[in-house]
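Notebook entry, cofactor series.
This is the third protein in the set we're modelling with a bound small molecule. For this one the ligand is flavin-adenine dinucleotide. I'm keeping the input format identical across the series so the outputs can be compared line by line later. Sequence and SMILES below, as received.
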Amino acid sequence: MRMVQFTDEDPSLGFQGRVCGGSRLRTSYYLCMRTYCTPSEGDEAADEVKKTCREVLAGEEVPGMESVAGYTDEEVENLPKFGRMGFEGGAGGKLDIVVVPDTTFFGLCWAMGFFWAGVVAVGMINKAIGLCMKSDRFSMPAESAPWRLVKRTIGLPATFGVRHAQSYGIWATVPPRIESITIALFVLLNIVLSVIGYTFFPGNMYYPKVRDQVLRWVADRTGIISFANFPLIWLFGMRNNLVLWLTGWDFATFNNFHRWVARVATVQAIIHSILYTMLIFYSMTLTSNSLLADLLTIYLLAGGWRYFLAWWTQLFWWTGEIATIALSALMGFSFYWLRRKQYEFFLFMHIVLSIVVLVTMLGHVSIFEGEYDALVWVPVIIWVLDRVMRIGRILVFNARFWNTRAQATFNDVTNMVRLEVPCSTSAYKAKPGTYYFLMVLNSYQFWESHPFTVATTTSHDGGEKDNDNMGEGAPLLENSDDESPDAPNTPLATGTMTPSISAKGDTMTFLIRPYDSFTARLRDAAAAAWPKPATVRVAVEGPYGHTQPLHRFDHVLFIVGGSGIVVPLSYLRRLREETPRPKTVHIHWTVREPALAEEVLRRDFAEALGGEGDQLRLDVYLTSSGANEVQTLMGGRSAGSSRRAVAGRAEEEAEDKVVQYHHGRADVRRVLVGECENATGSSLAVISCGPSAMQDGARQAVVQAMGVPANSSLRIEYFEESFTW
Ligand SMILES: Cc1cc2nc3c(=O)[nH]c(=O)nc-3n(C[C@H](O)[C@H](O)[C@H](O)COP(=O)(O)OP(=O)(O)OC[C@H]3O[C@@H](n4cnc5c(N)ncnc54)[C@H](O)[C@@H]3O)c2cc1C
Ligand SMILES: NC(=O)c1ccc[n+]([C@@H]2O[C@H](COP(=O)([O-])OP(=O)(O)OC[C@H]3O[C@@H](n4cnc5c(N)ncnc54)[C@H](OP(=O)(O)O)[C@@H]3O)[C@@H](O)[C@H]2O)c1
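Returned structure with ligand:
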């Protein structure tokens, strides 16, 4: 109401006293309070008016809320309304009637919330259906042709062509199609809300020039919507995120939403700042109709700069400008290439700049006297809660978190760190497919926290393994035969890791592929102690992630590469021992290091390989060895495998039936075609975890398989376990 001018105002009373001089403004103000505020808020505001007027009018009293008691609700409803765009029809820009603001002053902030509430509702329905599928009381529902069409064309494919996990050069990855559509709708909503519903006309009471109206209204609108997006940015970016739990979607999905909401909010903030800055410049003596000419004038006019700089003495102004600069820098420092190459630097900048944005935004909206503060405090609360939950999870794993001593083993030929973490202290049992964040405490970069999927859990005390535990966790061997002087000198033999933990209690095993930073330091620490394991103190935060209902499918196919073997390992126990259980579990594992294949078969698959029945089959594709070498390696394995030495002939034959070695990469498409032929008329779960090209190949192959008429009676579901956040 501050900007609306009325004909019966007394200009001599100044801005504060405006409401005391003319009854139209005061009445309009009271009716606004009555319409949009609670009675107590209305009374509070009226008391403020009376107090101000007592000062301005030297003790004279003005009427309070009782002065509008005579207006019926119907009369108020029929009063002329004015919106953010102003009010056409005032005399000389001044009104000689009583008016109330319309609802364009309210509600924009909620549009974003409603949109994402809708998205989350879809996710919740999806989760509810998933829970029914998980329940043993329901059989796997058949799939209708239209639903399959929707899945095949919208739900599953990459947005364009094949690339989803693979990046477009150094620029970006593109989410799957269904996520891209959701994001596109969100972007569209923001564009539409930033663009529609303005009424520009010459002679508006706030800004007579249409140009200034455009600048001011659009600046206001984009600023408000940008700010309204803040809580969503923080909500979607947190590890401990309520909507993750409500929908059952993975972190990668919400991370994509986080990025796009943030990008949209940043662009809106930039537009907001530029338009306001232009408005300031235009409110100087600029008369040209050309922006370029005006900018030149601004540049040349020293006085103009002084006027502009005067705004920088205003708290709301400079904090707003800094907030926009910090938001833009946040976007720049989150560039895909930097995220991949300098993750810790990206994370540091993300945290520092986010704090700057929140603090400066609080200053920026201070002129609204608390009206918009919630849009800062909600993100702060979300952030603090996430940190509290993270600390809570660490303590729940081990209240004496500094005292978790893990054993790390590494040697060059396997190129894999095996980390065994004692987990008897944990209140939670690791579930299949879940991951934990690990921090190495006896490192000067102890705050670095990295996610790893728990491959197996093992009981070392000779007692029973908990039924909820997943994985196989072969009983630990005494020194392996492979390391005896007589063992054949093959990479398989030399590559075998020394069994590590001999302590009692449960352990979780992680297989960690060394990259360049955290994982490289872990590798170096372990390599320095080889052949003994290195002891590292770790803080363990978790579990995170969801267990997929793979046991509900008739057939389960894992397509994995390298360290991606941890995913089938984590599900193996559940898939083999719980009912219902799939008829077949086929694992196609492409791996470079033959020694790693041997190591994992011997230690992590031992129990499964020796089992009864023909449920499990494991195809190992060795890519660093030639065809002849593969034969040799297999021969070496037969002659010298420690497991065989311990287990004997019967298990050796059982293993030969289960494990097949191949030379070269798995042909993912061919594998899937074969699997579909075997699974006709039933249900098949396909899970991929491996290099991004492999994952994209698997996704594409599933999409194609869904379109094959011969597979119409086969229900196929695709699950991607990815580390590409
Ligand atoms: C859910 C999940 C489960 C995973 N499970 C395993 C596993 O069982 N075994 C395994 O070997 N690897 C796993 N990874 C990958 C593993 O987390 C990264 O390889 C590791 O964090 C890289 O650390 P670094 O500092 O050595 O990486 P760098 O060499 O600095 O970077 C390598 C890659 O890892 C990414 N990265 C780095 N730090 C993080 C982080 N804190 N969070 C997320 N990504 C990061 C980078 O963006 C980059 O793409 C998993 C990843 C995810 C998301
Ligand atoms: N979410 C999780 O839980 C999790 C856990 C661990 C790992 N991962 C993922 O697993 C990946 C594996 O990492 P890594 O370093 O262990 O792998 P890696 O050693 O680089 O590769 C593993 C194997 O996959 C092969 N390969 C690559 N592209 C292929 C394709 N298109 N089709 C078939 N085979 C292909 C490679 O063959 P060549 O030798 O011919 O290149 C190699 O033998 C990581 O990139 C990560 O994405 C995810």
